[in-house]
């Protein structure tokens, strides 16, 4: 699920960047370091605005200056019970791994429908029911998250196919970028190349943030 979140980041600049364009250098450094990065709990998808930059403090011994930048960003955070689409990246006799953006999920043997069996002699190895359902590397698949484990800069999950209606999704394609729009239709100006997303073929999916009467933001999807 996508959220609008206020964050802060400490940026260090070399003395060679000091001058009238220093704010531009700070913004560029912020985008390069933060967009597409993961904290282990959420992924920073797109930085919308840097609204406060503190005065720089010179670091003793190096001459570099340190700035604290407060900014707003769209972040993506998966939840237990959430249904999402992904791409199979690895096939094992015990199950298979699925990449859902910045989240890697494992689907174990017990979470795969009983009519789908592992076929190790196939080329490439696959899970199949012997008919039209084939799960191999590169297959687009829909799963439900059963549990999430977070580390410093990564997210891992276990998922299931049993609780999802149509687990194999042949009409999906992977996009390396996704355009976000606020409810005011102001476009986000950065591509999301570091976070591939899955969207329906022939369907334009735009995510935005709608402001409620209480002034809080909640995610919304326009199609």
Automatic annotation (TrEMBL):
SUPFAM superfamilies: N-terminal, heterodimerisation domain of RBP7 (RpoE), Nucleic acid-binding proteins. The keyword Transcription applies. GO terms for cellular component: P-body; RNA polymerase II, core complex; RPB4-RPB7 complex. GO terms for molecular function: RNA-directed RNA polymerase activity; single-stranded DNA binding; single-stranded RNA binding; translation initiation factor binding. Gene3D superfamilies: Nucleic acid-binding proteins, RNA polymerase Rpb7-like, N-terminal domain. The keyword Transcription applies. Its main location: nucleus. It is found in: Nucleus. GO terms for biological process: nuclear-transcribed mRNA catabolic process; positive regulation of nuclear-transcribed mRNA poly(A) tail shortening; positive regulation of translational initiation; regulation of septum digestion after cytokinesis; transcription elongation by RNA polymerase II; transcription initiation at RNA polymerase II promoter. InterPro entries: NA-bd_OB-fold, RNA_pol_Rpb7-like_N_sf, Rpb7-like, Rpb7-like_N, S1_domain. Keywords: DNA-directed RNA polymerase, Nucleus, Transcription. It holds the Pfam family SHS2_Rpb7-N. It comes from the Eukaryota. Signal peptide: none annotated. PROSITE patterns: S1 (PS50126). Belongs to the eukaryotic RPB7/RPC8 RNA polymerase subunit family. DNA-dependent RNA polymerase which catalyzes the transcription of DNA into RNA using the four ribonucleoside triphosphates as substrates. This is DNA-directed RNA polymerase subunit. It comes from Epicoccum nigrum (Soil fungus).
């Amino acid at each position: 699920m996508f959220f609008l979140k206020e964050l802060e980041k400490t940026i260090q600049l070399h003395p060679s960047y000091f001058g009238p364009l220093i704010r531009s250098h700070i913004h560029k450094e912020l985008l390069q370091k933060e967009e597409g990065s993961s904290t282990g709990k959420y992924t920073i998808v797109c930085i919308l605005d840097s609204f406060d930059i503190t005065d720089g403090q010179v670091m003793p011994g190096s001459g570099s200056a340190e700035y604290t930048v407060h900014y707003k960003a769209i972040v993506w955070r998966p939840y237990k019970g959430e249904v999402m689409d992904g791409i199979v990246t690895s096939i094992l006799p015990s199950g298979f791994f699925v990449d859902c953006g910045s989240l890697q999920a494992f689907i174990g043997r017990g979470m795969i429908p009983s009519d789908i069996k592992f076929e190790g002699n196939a080329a490439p190895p696959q899970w199949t029911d012997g008919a039209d359902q084939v799960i191999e590397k590169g297959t687009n698949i829909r799963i439900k998250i059963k549990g999430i484990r977070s580390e410093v800069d990564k997210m891992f999950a276990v998922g299931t196919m049993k609780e999802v209606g149509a687990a194999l999704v042949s009409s999906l394609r992977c996009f390396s970028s996704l355009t976000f729009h606020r409810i005011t239709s102001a476009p986000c100006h950065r591509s999301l190349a570091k976070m591939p997303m899955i969207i329906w073929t022939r369907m334009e999916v735009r995510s935005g943030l709608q402001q409620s009467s209480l002034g809080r933001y909640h995610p919304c999807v326009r199609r």
